[in-house]
Every structure is written in C-alpha cells, then in structure tokens.
Amino acid sequence: MRGCHGVPMQHGGGDAHPGPPVRVVWSEEMLRYDFGHGHPMTSERLELTVRLAAELGLLDGPGVELVGAGRASDAQLETVHEAAYVAAVHRADADGTPDVLRGLGTQDTPVFAGMHEASARAVAGTVESAEAVWTGRASHAVNVTGGLHHAMPGGASGFCVYNDVAVGIRRLLELGAERVAYVDVDAHHGDGVQEVFWDDPRVLTVSLHETGQALFPGTGHARETGGPHADGTAVNVALPSRTGDAGWLRAFDAVVPAVLREFDPQVLVTQHGCDAHRLDPLTSLRMSVEGLLAATTRLHDLAHDLCGGRWVALGGGGYAVIDAVPRVWAHLVGVAVHRPVDPATPVPAAWQAMVEDRFGRSGPARMGDGTTPDPVPWSRGYDPADDVDRAVRATRAAVFPAWGLDPELD
Asked: Is the confidence at residue 283, as pLDDT, over 70?
C-alpha cells in the first residue's frame, strides 16, 4: 500500500501501542529544504530515510501517526530570531539577493528559491511536535527535517536558516514547561541552541561533538558552562577526532545520565545528527550505525526514566547520504515507535533497487555495520593517557560541582 504523500508502506509487526501515538513528521514538502546540487545538505537524505523507514514497516500500523507540518509564523520565529533577520530571509527569498552579514548567500548557506517557506516548515514540524508531546497528544515525536542547531538569533550558519530546535524549546516554555533538557549528538557543537539559552536556568543544553579545535563551529569547549544565572546548564563534551563507539559511549555514560538526573527535566529534546559516523565526509569521528543506535536507545530510555516518556527527537547533520543517514535515522524512527530494528536485518530489496536506479550504485546490505559497541564504564577508572578520558574529565570538572556532583566519584 501507499501512505502519506506517496511514501510506500508496509504493515509493521508488533502489538497495538497503548496510549497516545508516536508522531512522525513527514510530507514531500519537507524536501524543499535543499541548497541545490552539490551541497552536502541535500534533501535526498530525508527522502532516502523515509523510504527506508517505510519499507521496514515503521511508518504504518497501530500507534504511529504520520503527519505533515504547517509553516511557522513570523511571530513564532521571532520568539528566537531577530525581526530584522526574519525580514532579511524574506527579502533573500523574494529576489535572491544575499545578505552575507546575516549568513545568507554564503557557501555554507546559499540562498535558494522558497527558502523561507521551507525553513519555516521545518520549524513548524518541531514546534507542532513539541506541542503534541507536551499536551499528551503524542508520546514521542520525530522530525528528521529538524535539528537545525547552528542558526543564530541574528543570522544563518552552518546550513541552518532558522533554529527549529530553539523555537520548539521556547514553545515548550511558553506552554508551562519549567525544565527542558536538550541533548545534541551531532558531530558539530550545538552552538545556536546553546547561545539562545545560555543564561536561562530552565533549559539544560548538552552537546557531545568533535572538538572545536578541529571542526566547525570551533566552540563547545568544556569551560563553556552557561551564563551567570544558569551556571552548569551548558554541558559540552569535546571529543578528540577519530573517537569511535567505545570512547563516545563511555563519554556519554560518564556525563549525560548524571547531569540529566540532577536537572530532572520534564521533557527531553534531542538532536540526532549522524555525522559522527565513520563514513561521513565532513567530520573525523569514527562511530558505527550500532554506536549511534546505542546513543538513540540511551536517550529514549532517559526520556522514559526522567520525563514520563515526553521525547521530541530531531534530525540534523549527516552527509554520508546513502551509506549512513538513512539507516541511522530509520533506526531512530524504529526506537521511537517501539519497534527497534535489529542491525543484522537486511536492507529491504525495494529500497536497494531504488538506490541503484537513482544513483547507479548499491547501498549498504544490512541495517548495521557489523560492530558490537562495548564501552568501558567510567567507574572502572580514569586513564590520564587517553584523549577521550581527558576530555570527559574536563567536562565533569567544569560542570559537576554546579550540580552537587563529585567529578571524581559520581
């Protein structure tokens, strides 16, 4: 059968999901967020992901609500972005004129026709998901078009026009949320979200990323811990280049659960940029599909443990268009809809045929890379000769005392 907006579907297995449905945001209109031929942020990443999730039977069946998105209003965008910047996006969209001082028309973020509408739709997908999760109309929500975490209040940056993450979190605060936790696993630091909530004690921002000494945007050092009214609410784990599954997951386990438990969030917002994968052309981290799946599973479990299941999961970076992004984000959907996919599962033949027809090459054969992530728990001790351990210890020393945690013990 065929589902929403022509996406091919299969009926998924498993029992009916009790309670509110899981919301998955998708329509073909989302493909319009595309900077053009040759740009890494191609919308083919999105289409291949949704096609794969559909062929795996994850978008159909009980407990899944597949929905499109409207367009965020200028007033909604201006809860985060400066009015002059929103106006500049409109102007650039209307006549194609760049505004390089505001990041529009740069090599990273070129102007494209329909830019405002496409970007506002990505924001709406996240805002509407946040509203649904907060009000109980959805248990979890996934918007892989979202996660545009680099956009600043006054300008575009790093392929991101509007910051859907920050606007979504702002909406949660407007609805009455008192504590929102944001965890970002993109290989690039979540600088825009951190900037917006730098001095807001109601929002905890956590980012695990490749060190800014090696990678854009050059920020996200352990010493960045929040403003004078919110010390400890910015948590940054700057990992050395070439960190793989074991080191990445060791760092996650040594920092994220302890800080989230102390913060006690009411809702968890996560950004699942998958450019930490070892095949990504823009970064130097060395994670596998299984490692990124393990991160997703940990975040899902934390949402249930700490937030009553209230979880908004977003996309982000990831530029291995065929080999990594579709599998990682299909796994994200599988975890969210409580039908996780075994990494040993063969990639569906129909998806493989579509890849071969469109790209003239084969895609990955299985849903995983054949690895078994096995991180060593932090409790077994700190190795001062290990670059990952030094990065983790720097983060714990910088933020744990603000939460009453002992950097050496907790």
From this structure: yes
Of 320, 213, 327, the residue nearest 275 (C-alpha) = 320
Backbone φ/ψ region at 263: left (φ over 0), alpha (ψ -120 to 50), beta: alpha
According to DSSP, residue 379 is labeled G
What pLDDT score was predicted for residue 344?
98
Contacts of residue 361, defined as CB under 8 A and 6 or more positions apart, other chains included, come to: 322, 355
3 state SS of 207: strand
Tell me the average pLDDT of the chain. 95
Beta partners for residue 312, in sequence order? 141, 269
Domain coverage including residue 309: 4-8+18-403
Q: CA–CA separation, 52 vs 354, rounded Å?
A: 10
Give me the helices (H) in 209-348, please: 245-263, 289-307, 325-336
What are residue 319's DSSP bridge partners?
Answer: none
Rounded to a whole number, what is the distance in angstroms from the first to the last CA of the chain? 51
Token duo for residue 84: 């002059």
Instruction: Answer yes or no: pTM beyond 0.85.
Output: yes
What amino acid is encoded at 354 in this protein? M
Please tell me the predicted confidence (pLDDT) of residue 18. 61
Residues annotated catalytic, as ranges: 150
Whether 225 is covered by a domain: the verdict is yes
Closest CA to 130 of 188, 177, 86: 177
Whether 160 contacts 196, CB under 8 Å = no
Where does residue 318 fall: left (phi above 0), alpha (psi -120 to 50 degrees), or beta otherwise?
Answer: left
Tokens representing 346? 């063969």
CB 22 within 8 A of CB 64: yes
What is the maximum span of the chain, computed from C-alpha positions, in angstroms?
Answer: 60
d(CA 19, CA 375): 34
Alpha carbon 45 to its chain centroid, in Å, reads 14
- Asked if residue 285 lies in contact with residue 198, where contact means CB atoms within 8 angstroms, the answer is no
Report d(CA 285, CA 160) in Å as an integer. 21
Dist CA 193 CA 209 (whole Å): 14
- Residue 302 in domain: yes
By percentage, how much of the chain surpasses pLDDT 70? 96
Amino acid letter, residue 78? E
Q: Is residue 409 one of the residues assigned to a domain?
A: no
Length of the chain: 410
> What total of structural domains would you count in the chain?
1
What's the CATH number where 384 sits?
3.40.800.20
- Would you say residue 282 lies in a domain? yes
DSSP 150: T
